[in-house]
Design goal:
Blueprint (H helix, E strand, L loop, with lengths): L2 E7 H11 L15 E5 L4 E7 L3 E8 L11 E5 L1 H10 L10 E12 L6 E11 L8 E7 L6 H12 L8 E2 L2 H5 L2 H7 L3 E5 L6 E6 L3 E6 L1 E2 L4 H17 L2 H4 L2
Antiparallel strand pairs: 1-6, 2-3, 2-5, 3-4, 4-12, 6-7, 7-8, 9-13, 10-11, 11-12
Length: about 250
């Protein structure tokens, strides 16, 4: 496979990049996790996936087979800078809800500077369809980050398929939760948190029909004294809140 190409809703592709980009790794040396992986799957959808190990995000982009008769499976990566460039250039006007984006990715191998190792490189072309004179176009080249996402996808899939688990007391870093605010803005839906399982160290996060994610949490393991303090603390709140507030 030397080339991938597809036509997709600009609105949905933008939403996917906005929602997943906050979940890439901040460490610039961690190239594998400092990118959004765009996957063309056999479910006739595009999945945009990002994970820094503490939070994960997967956004679905609907795929029209009639607009993509020569659809092929494959994936490529986009750095947060590439995502930002696409979002900056391809904005939506008032009457462009149905605008489409044509994406073409060409793969080749290049010698890594200072080494004798060849690395895969992708040249990505993005073009807005439906405009006069061919529409806006952006072309960028960057190394391909290859990553096996099956384990991450399986975590979300397994959680979605099983019955809801009861959530034990957990601690969650507020910075990890903040990474999901862009998904809420992109899809204009509330965030819903769901326990993965009784022994899991994470929560699944859903936002509308096109976004799912995962956030690492720390279980609060309590000894007898801590458990009694926790019960007492809950009891205090149960007593001090006005009855009207309790019923909300």
């Amino acid at each position: 496979m030397n080339t991938l190409s597809f036509v997709v809703s600009l609105n949905m592709f933008r939403a996917a990049l906005v929602a997943t980009r906050p979940h890439v790794a901040s460490d610039k040396k961690n190239l594998q996790q400092r990118c959004v992986i765009v996957s063309l799957t056999d479910t006739a959808e595009i999945l945009c996936t990002a994970s820094d190990g503490l939070t994960s995000a997967i956004a679905r982009v609907p795929f029209d087979k009639e607009r993509n008769p020569y659809f092929e499976l494959g994936q490529f990566s986009m750095t947060p800078e590439t995502c930002a460039a696409v979002l900056s250039m391809f904005k939506l006007g008032k009457d462009e809800a149905d605008a489409e984006l044509e994406v073409s990715v060409q793969f080749k191998s290049e010698r890594e500077p200072g080494t004798r190792r060849d690395v895969p490189v992708a040249t990505m072309s993005f073009r807005r369809l439906g405009q006069l004179f061919g529409g806006d176009e952006l072309k960028l080249t960057e190394p391909v980050q290859q990553r096996d996402l099956t384990g991450l996808w399986a975590t979300i899939s397994t959680s979605a398929a099983r019955a809801e688990a009861k959530l034990p007391p957990v601690k969650v870093d507020s910075g990890r939760l903040a990474a999901f605010t862009q998904a809420q803005k992109a899809y204009e839906q509330p965030l819903i948190f769901s326990a993965v399982g009784p022994e899991s160290s994470g929560l699944c996060v859903y936002c509308g029909d096109y976004f799912a994610g995962w956030v690492a949490v720390d279980r609060v393991d309590m000894d007898k004294a801590s458990e009694l303090r926790h019960v007492r603390r809950r009891g205090i709140w149960a007593r001090v809140l006005p009855a009207g507030l309790k019923a909300m």
